[in-house]
Design a protein that fits this description.
Shape: globular
Strand content: 15-25%
CATH superfamily of the largest domain: Spore Coat Polysaccharide Biosynthesis Protein SpsA, Chain A
Number of helices: 13
CATH class of the largest domain: Alpha Beta
CATH architecture of the largest domain: Alpha-Beta Complex
CATH topology of the largest domain: Spore Coat Polysaccharide Biosynthesis Protein SpsA, Chain A
């Protein structure tokens, strides 16, 4: 594949809405007036067994000239032979690097591109369920969740919802089970987003949130440890927060509340169950958890006692600001969310929820070491301004 064959595709795309572009052969030559520039390039693996040459695309008045010179260079031609080309925006993207967010319709076998959280909301609530090797637990969680949601629709005809299952590279039948529920309930109700390889819970939640259609976005674990009916507690707390913001901005308090337009977050909390947990856990797990909570306090500050509960609700406005900025992909993404909320001045509420220990936890001893490592990354990344918090893309 020659450099000229993909130049027009790269340059005419501008910045894709998901921050990702899969380049394909096109006519040679670059269109005039282009404002894209190559910042750098490197050989990498896309996690699916294929190798690709990735280029970061920035903005500049001489972008077309700079890109053309790189594409025609001898080194580029040597490395590019036989490779698939992918280009990425330097803006905070709305997916994960290396994968275009598509959902698959099992009835037609067609790949349909997901919407973006920056599009207008078309549902009242989106439920994002990250799943990794959850074939033994996800059925009961989906059945309980759908039963509640269908009952709520009967009580409130205006209530609309979607469930997004994000399969984080499962090696079991998690995807197959997701397709079974899509066939039963329809693609508008349940959607499956697959990641090629396991990237971590934080990456799965981030991708699901950025592809949601709801005014309210709920993150819940696939193991069903939290009672689904408790989402009404989180919802009530968010509505109270949004009304408070509406009142402080001197809007008409009797007007209809657009719950997705104001930033607000509600964290489900198990802090009220701490004494019971300490009594049932082994001593070394209690010691590790106490040490972890102390580190969280030092990194994110006070305000949220339980950062790790997998039951959290965000308004659409909050999700638009938080998840494009989220960098951690595994255990401590929750702590980073707390830190970002404080920096972006997004109000956070902590709500007690019902929680049960479900067999099959994926947290192992080495997971705590990785958690501490990620806490250090948060401290260093934001403390030394290596990780910048972007806000301009929200207006864009």
């Amino acid at each position: 594949m020659s450099s000229g064959e993909l130049m027009e595709t790269v340059l005419s795309s501008r910045t894709p809405s998901y921050g990702h572009l899969r380049c394909s052969p096109r006519l040679a030559g670059a269109p005039s007036g282009c404002s894209l520039a190559v910042v750098g390039g490197r050989l990498a693996s896309d996690g699916c067994g294929k190798r690709s040459l990735r280029f970061c695309i920035g903005h500049g008045p001489r972008g077309g000239v700079l890109l053309e010179s790189v594409l025609r260079s001898r080194e580029f031609s040597r490395k590019a032979k036989g490779f698939e080309f992918r280009c990425f925006s330097d803006r905070p993207d709305c997916s994960n690097v290396g994968a275009v967010p598509y959902m698959e319709d099992p009835s037609s076998l067609e790949r349909v591109q997901f919407p973006s959280v920056f599009d207008p909301a078309s549902k009242y609530m989106s439920l994002i369920m990250p799943a990794y090797n959850e074939q033994d637990r996800i059925r009961s969680t989906l059945d309980e969740t759908l039963s509640y949601l269908q009952d709520r629709v009967k009580r409130d005809k205006s209530f609309t919802y979607e469930i997004i299952i994000v399969d984080d590279g499962s090696k079991d039948n998690t995807t197959k089970i997701g397709f079974e529920y899509i066939n039963k309930y329809g693609l508008d109700v349940i959607r499956l987003l697959k990641q090629g390889v396991n990237q971590g819970k934080g990456a799965a939640v981030r991708k699901g949130m950025l592809c949601s259609r709801g005014q309210l976005l709920l993150m819940l674990d696939a193991d069903g440890a939290s009672r689904i009916t408790d989402l009404e507690k989180l919802e009530a707390q968010i509505l109270q927060s949004v009304r408070g913001q509406q009142a402080s901005s001197k809007q008409n308090p009797t007007s209809k509340v657009d719950v997705g337009s104001a930033p607000a977050v509600a964290f489900g909390s198990r802090a009220h169950l701490e004494k019971q947990a300490l009594a049932t856990r082994k001593w070394y797990r209690n010691f590790l958890m106490k040490a972890f909570h102390l580190c969280v306090l030092l990194v994110a500050g006070p305000g949220v006692r339980d950062t790790q509960c997998g039951f959290k609700m965000f308004t659409r406005s909050a999700a638009q600001q938080l998840f494009p900025n989220l960098r951690l992909r595994r255990w401590c993404f929750d702590v980073e969310l707390v830190y970002l909320c404080k920096r972006l001045r997004i109000p956070v509420s902590e709500v007690s929820v019902t929680w049960a220990e479900i067999p099959g936890s994926k947290v192992r001893f080495f997971s705590f070491a990785h958690m501490l490592f990620e806490l250090v990354l948060i401290r260093l990344g934001y403390g030394f301004h290596m990780w910048k918090i972007h806000t301009s893309f929200v207006q864009n």
